[in-house]
Amino acid sequence: MESAPIQLVDIGANLGHESFSHDLEAVLQRARAAGVVQMVVTGASREGARAALALARAHPGLLYATAGVHPHHALEVTAEGEAELRALQSQPEVVANGECGLDYFRDFCPRPAQRRAFERQLELAAENGKPVFLHQRDAHEDYMAILRQFDGRLGACVTHCFTGTRAEMYACLDAGHSIGITGWLCDERRGTHLREMVKDIPADRLLIETDAPYLLPRTVKPAPKHRRNEPSFLRHIVEELARDRGEDVATTAAHSTQNARRFFQLPG
To answer: In this predicted structure, what is the pLDDT of residue 3?
Structure first.
């Protein structure tokens, strides 16, 4: 008797990115063919959140959306911006708040503005109770300090696209977060430390994502000429992750899919 085909959920794909505007239907078809049965489209700016919601409405049951403002766009979190986010986050297709957090690696927005925008978005998340899709890069101490101000007030949290140290990962786990793993794992230049660490993520806190069109796994062979990542490559990430965790692919896939559906309240 054949085992059931593997089903995967991509918890973070930037499908509103312009690189998908000409062939999104083909991208979704390839994703389904690779076993990716549900995808959460990241809304990382006011415009991006509107686009993510529109995509989710156009593809019910396949695509879902988040609504938030990435720290690169922190200056968008004005009073008007908060009102728009509140309205977007109230929609049933929007399954999480975010992407929100801190990014001191790029510093595209002043750090005080980033911290203020993060706090204001966590207030919205505390108000609506939906999960929180979090971003942190080179800002761990401030990130955790702000989150501690909201202890007991937030729904489920995921530190998405985790790339940090073992100590940082344990701090996130101790705070109750799930951990999102991307193709960064497959980067021999900067992601090799993750290969040992992913064994330590509890099975019920493990989530997987492509962060498409970014972070094309460097171990995909042959690499696509356009260098664009897409949800169909989630299958490759879960295979690498399973190997690093010492599990068979079906086990890692089943855990991550069950976790994603529970986290975002997806059907399945």
So the answer is: 59
- Per-residue pLDDT tens for 130-155? 999 999 999 999 999 999 999 999 99
DSSP for the chain, please give it: -PPPPP-EEEEEE-TTSGGGTTTHHHHHHHHHHTTEEEEEEP--SHHHHHHHHHHHHHSTTTEEEEE---GGGGGG-SHHHHHHHHHHHTSTTEEEEEEEEEETTT--S-HHHHHHHHHHHHHHHHHH---EEEEEES-HHHHHHHHHTTTTT---EEE-S--S-HHHHHHHHHTT-EEEE-GGGG-TTT-HHHHHHGGGS-GGGEEE---BTS---TT-SSPPTT----GGGHHHHHHHHHHHHT--HHHHHHHHHHHHHHHHT---
* β-bridge mates for residue 97, sequence order: 67, 132
Pairing of strands 157-159, 178-181: parallel
Mean pLDDT of all residues in 158-163: 97
User: Tens of pLDDT along 110-135?
Assistant: 999 999 999 999 999 999 999 999 99
Q: Which domains does the chain have, with CATH numbers?
A: 8-264 (3.20.20.140)
Q: 0.85 cut: is pTM over it?
A: yes
Preceding peptide of 99 cis, ω within 30° = yes
Nearest residue to 87 (alpha-carbon basis) of 116, 56, 117, 124: 124
Give the pairing type, strands 132-137 and 63-67.
Answer: unpaired
Beta bridge partners of 36: 8
Q: Which residues pair with 135 in a beta bridge?
A: 101
What is the greatest pairwise CA distance in the chain?
Answer: 59
Q: Using CA atoms, how far apart are residues 14 and 1, in angstroms rounded to an integer?
A: 38
